[in-house]
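Holo prediction — zinc ion.
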Amino acid sequence: MSADLILYNIGELFCPIDNNEPLRGQAMNTAKIMHNAYIAIKAGKIQAIGEGEVPESLISNETQKRDLSGLTVTPGLIDSHTHLVHGGSRENEFSMKLNGVSYLDILAAGGGILSTVNATKTSTFDELYTKAKKSLDTMLIHGTTTVEAKSGYGLEWETEEKQLKVAKKLNEDHPVEVVSTFMGAHAIPTQLKENPEEFIKELTEFMIPEVSKHSLAEFCDVFCEHGVFSVEQTRRILQCAKENNLKIKIHADEIVSLGGAELAAEMGAHSAEHLMAASDEGISLMAKNNVIANLLPGTTFSLMKTSYADARKMIENNLAVALSTDYNPGSCPTENIQLIMQLGSLAMKMSPIEVFNAVTINGAHSLGRGHETGSFEVGKNADIVVFDAPNIDYILYHFGVNHVKEVYKNGNLVVQDRRVI
Ligand code: IZC
Ligand code: ZN
């Protein structure tokens, strides 16, 4: 059967090795790299890939052909950890940060997340939608074709629901696929500061069952951190999420080494996020229990810290590593996943192949999308990025600029010459 579209004369084609599971340990440094390659697309799916001449059987009069003149192609990038939908911004805290006031101290003083909670409460659905749509456009022109979006700027039902419904509508309207996570346990609301148990009761007895009943999210996440939710509180919240058929993630050991990685292993979390302060024991337990380590080096950079998550140690311990932006208005205000990939290499010493696997196949698995996107297996979604670069190493080496020339989502051209079309 002939193809609808063929991309040919691809200089370098990066194909993750797809064994229907995340790539762990040494396997993270393996990939099929093809030269003078082609991709054939049929009905929005990958029909064939190969090197050299395009087989005649794939071509008919109706087949559109696109000469990529030696450029580099990878699967659509997956940004598997973001706080996409929120009101306002926090540049008013920037000078405080530069003067040494810590992220957790700003939060404890009622700023940080709590300031975004106020801005999100007072934003209308349309305001949140318009702002998040602009961010999704920015993500898309940087190569992101699937993104996770967490709630957690309401801390009460009406606003949490508003955020989740904005994400749902964006998933319907925008080319980027949006996967929702309920993160009501993102901070203790100011009015319940002295009574966190009451908030946990509200989360477990009302909000989580409501999210599940109305299919408003696939995942549930908790900010397990000093001064936010303890390991014991996180365990109870996530146990309830599991009982309500939500898959679980944990913001684990981001700033203080609390035992979040150990908890992620104990509870069989899909992924544990951040892990800047994860213990050796936590890392090895995560590996044993197949928890994906989702690392967010843009946050380390933006918090002006030098202790990046130890990606090398995690890979040596046979973990599967994913990389994401953590796009949010506080600790990582950037939508640019290429910058995060460059930090993956330059600050965490991941090889280019490890970095591209982390934002394709492993990112897809960390969102439960490994069967549809993240690699070029026949039948998967034709989510494709064309980079104006001669090879994948160049994309990480030449940092701080956008190398994306074109993006295809489900076989449709959605970005051309760095613009959403
Ligand atoms: O708004 O500060 N770390 N949550 C946990 C965040 C960062 C987002 C924020
Ligand atoms: Zn986060």
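READOUT: Residues 83, 112-113, 116, 223, 251, 328-331 surround 2H-imidazol-4-ylacetic acid (ligand 1) (CB under 6 Å).
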